[in-house]
Amino acid sequence: MKSQKITSGREKPSPRRYDDACAAAHALDLLGERWALLVVRELMFGAKRFSDLRADLPGISANVLTQRLEGLAAAGILVRRKLPPPGATQVYELTQWGYETEPVFQALGRWAARSPHHDPTLPFGATSLFLSFRTMLDPVLAEGIDARIGFRIGAESFMARLGDGRIEIARAPISDADVVFAAAATTMAAVIYAGQPLSEAEAAGALAIEGDRPLAERFLTLFPLPSRVGEAG
Fold it and tell me: Is the overall model pTM greater than 0.90, yes or no?
């Protein structure tokens, strides 16, 4: 008589998955691979080509980026589509469910900004800059401001609408802006978060302001970082 193989009916857990019913564990199954969250971050302001993603994530290899895009697409977090002529190139963009991860970035950002080891002077891309604005805006400090603010970050342009204690930002041509900032994202971050004097950045030619200067100077004060762990206050 042959013995029968007895199984529990459960598949053997993947070494890359937690095999845990907790929704937080499943979130890590979906986004916990190295680079996965940052790929999602870079798509938060719209579709990008593969080459754009590689340029915005200089530490990632083409092979790893391909793997992450495939995994995120399989999970339903992003899709690949082909632009119509004359572009006729493939781009990657988040699904509606993918865009719903923004609060995750905001919560992580607020939490990690309190780390005594966080260094705001490290390389900082445009997407990270504008996500930080939506995360760190203090509605009390922004009270009474109703303005359109433009940004030229390298070859990209963005428009922000600030009002009712909120800021909405989109990748778009600059139009009817009350004030325009032209600077690298790292320079903007250094002035806003790392204490670099505005006059110093301007004197070095690293930052230029067009339009309402008092509004520009006030805007730079609207994003206070939380106290770091161990600091008083």
Answer: no
